[in-house]
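Appendix B, Record 12. Input sequence as logged:
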Amino acid sequence: MHAQTPLEIAIGEERDTAADSDTHETAQLLAEAIRLHRSGRMADAARLCERVRQHAPDNLTALLLSGTIELQSGRHHAADQYFQLAQAAAPHSVDAATARSNTLRAIGKHDQALAVLEDILRHSPDHAIAWNNRGNLLLEMGRNTNAIESYDRAISLHPNYLDALHNRGVARMASGDNFAAEADLTRALELKPDYVPALVNRGTARVQQSPERAHDAITDLRQAVLLERTNPDAWHMLGRSYLALGQHAEALSNWSTGLARHANHAAMRHDRAFLFNALGRYSDAATDFERLIALNLHDAAAWQGRGIALARLNHEKEALESFSQALRFRPDDVVSLYNRAAIFSRLKRYEEAASDLEVLVAADPEFPLARGLLLSARLYLSDWKGLERQREAIDACVRRGSRVIHPFAHLLISDCSAAQLACARRHTSGAYPTARVPLYRGEQYSHEKIRVAYFSGDFYQHAVPSLIAGVLENHDSSRFEILGISYGGNDKSPMRARLEKACARFFDVRERDDASIATLLRNLEVDMIIDLKGHTGPERPGILAHRPCPVQVNYLGYPGTMGADYMDYLIADRIVIPPEQRQFYSEQIVYLPDTYQANDSARPIAPDGITRGDAGLPEAAFVFCCFNGSQKILPPVFDSWMRILSHSENSVLWLLEDNQGTAVNLRREAQARGIAAERLIFARHERPDRHLARLKLADLVVDTLPYGAHTTASDALWAGVPVLTCIGSSFAGRVAASLLTAAGLPELIMQSVVEYEATAQNFAATPGLLLKIREKLARNRESCALFDTVRMTRNLEAAYVKMWQRHQRGESPTGFALP
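Logged structural output:
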């Protein structure tokens, strides 16, 4: 969207004031200089002008032509000196004034340029070119209304003034009046149908009126590129018009064509880069953003876009640098501030995350997810200042339908299944909406085996693989073809190698975009995809939003509903989702007969030999233990623990040290409740087999609410340590109850906090009672449903078959329970 700003002077057509110097020889030299200039021989033309000025220093034509050559060569200050001499020689010359104004404008002296034009217009008010040039200058200064007034004067003097009509249309576009702009540009095109700038700008005005006018815009812009295939603005706006119609492939194609000719067209590359990000083509986006940064190191938007792309590719450190650079060049960039905080959180740098988010929430309290992420960062630090007030505010926002907190973080503070569904639906519709056109459209595959893809970003040494690895290994390969789809990192651990070996085919797709991964799944003819991640970060539901598979299942990784229409089933059991709560899940519920949670009966435990002394535990104390993440420890649970410790002499609480802030803050909170800080003992992260071995040092694991122990509860039970839980109201708070039931220990499931505290105190006071529980767990460990990996695998397979049979019969997904 540009005004036409030619150097509108008529070199050689004004009569010099120093007429006596205009000899026949001078006239010949000037005529030859003008001819050389028009043929592009600038240096030769300049030499002839110099010869003229040696004999006639005030010759207007020589001065104007010399200045024009300097201006066109980019030597603006030298040009300005010539045009000042021209003005002195001919004070009322419109050409001299116009030329000098253009030069002042080129060197950024807009006010002086405007003063020169306005001075000449006082002497020559009927000069249309000067009015047009004044309009161009005002438009560049952002004074759109005054620019339109100038163009009005030019057009009133010459109604068919092509450039002024075009330029007024551009000024009206800049003022937001695209309908009036279209009228001006149409008049210009009636005068000159092949006027490319007017075609480009009319196309722009049309697409900016409404997406419905994009078809008309495309007609204009196609004509423009046919007339002038090298015009970058035409290719740029053609791509934008296709984008308005949702035709992303056409938009990218036109931008790629334009950039092949004009690689440094920043606006077009910006648009392509941001579309790549929107489409999940993060590697391509990062490449484009890096090109933009090479063109302009201070391009904050490019730094921000690069950060988003790299974050999606799990390149956290590089993403962090990008967001920091964006904030360096644009300190009020709230998007980069939020994203940097999110990366800090992912890297467990919670203090820095909270610091950024406090600034952000103060600047923009309604920024999506910001208050929820701030609350989450503080929970990881066990920083509870103002927690209840923040929870209440977030709950109110969720009820209003605001996108205030990520669904996973919401599970930490809410035990209301209805609110969790509302939160998940709002998040999914905003971040991962259903694709307009599904990739799978009802085709019937003819596989001998059901092709099942397990889909996760955690296929490395992580909690979820520690549960599911045994299932992958025990699938019936005569009936199922198992695929692994990994979009996360590869730590090259034994667990990663084990997962790859367990799958018939394994695909590392972390560098690929959502659409291409979805297309891969469709081309592989995957019958059923099992999402082991859900809304646990870094998540990629956008892949499944394309509906690449006939049957799409939410299982194991996320203890709640995804709130997505494209997820068909959620695998659960009757404890984690009581039948009366099915209404709070967007998926159809499939009930397994024992417990929903898979477990791996081949998990190794390091040989005994770790002592309480090694772990920093007192030898004779009763050890209460909770290795849940610090984000799950809320004040009501901590209050219960402190009451338990106060009534249980010679007892300690053994916790996991996620970060230094957790230990400092929890010890301070303990002291505030009358418990000595040294009674809280913190354990560092340990490799899995040694972690299981040290768990045996605990006497009793105590659970949290509203988000309880999941893998950590299975770890404890596998290590032979009883788990005491108080059953919650929603999925996330009922998992331990499911596991204890499957382990044959329902007596450890409490129905109230009072009962929970009394039972814990009783175990500490009656060692023989707890010993019987441990002996029972030891007897059950090898035979109970919880650790029967083969039995769990057969249950899952039976569920998969039933889901698949319903699909084969053309029936909609419907919940069911296995016998």
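Confidence is low (pLDDT under 50) at residues 5-21.
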